[in-house]
From TrEMBL:
Domain HTH marR-type: 8-138
GO terms for cellular component: cytoplasm
Species name: Draconibacterium sediminis
Protein name: HTH-type transcriptional regulator SarZ
Highest taxon in the source lineage: Bacteria
Gene3D superfamilies: Winged helix-like DNA-binding domain superfamily/Winged helix DNA-binding domain (1.10.10.10)
Record's subcellular location: Cytoplasm
Keywords: Cytoplasm, DNA-binding, Transcription, Transcription regulation
Alphabetical list of InterPro entries matching this protein: HTH_MarR-typ, Transc_reg_Sar_Rot_HTH, WH-like_DNA-bd_sf, WH_DNA-bd_sf
Family recorded in the similarity comment: Belongs to the SarZ family.
Pfam families according to UniProt: Staph_reg_Sar_Rot (PF22381)
Length: 141
């Protein structure tokens, strides 16, 4: 078998496996604040800036409307966000944090440190990994 066709030679497999592992590390930490990983990502986007349109959130998270809309509906049902149609264009839905969603930010502030500790590596190592991944992603666009 050609060396380049062996699993150990592939770049995609360890990246895929690492992605799954990182999400698995986040899972129990996020359960403490009653969020799934995708919900956590949405909350981070909104904690940075709100209100935002559904498509703006989807663009930032690389999620299409078919994925982001049900996610946002579940978050609204949990009382974390509100969904409001734009009065000028009813096709546009704006997403804002509720008071509960805003208050959750204080608890969520502990998540990054807990993740670093659970992974057993230094914050500097994680930042190097993130920087390299971002570099590759930016070139792929």
């Amino acid at each position: 078998m050609d060396e380049e066709l062996k699993l150990k030679s592939q770049v995609c497999f360890p990246v895929y496996a690492l992605s799954r592992e990182i999400v698995n590390v986040y899972r129990p930490i996020l359960e403490e604040i009653d969020l799934t990983y995708p919900q956590y990502l949405v909350m981070m986007v909104l904690w940075e800036n709100e209100p935002q349109k559904v498509n703006e959130i989807g663009d930032k998270l690389n999620l299409d409307n078919g994925t982001i809309t049900p996610l946002l509906k579940r978050m609204a049902a949990k009382g974390l966000i509100s969904r409001k149609r734009n009065t000028k264009d009813e096709r546009v839905v704006e997403i804002s944090l509720t008071e509960s969603g805003k208050q959750l930010q204080t608890k969520a502030a502990e998540v990054p440190q807990k993740v670093v500790k659970a992974m057993g590596i230094t914050p500097e190592d994680l930042m190097q990994l993130k920087d390299l991944v971002v570099k590759i992603l930016n070139r792929a666009k």
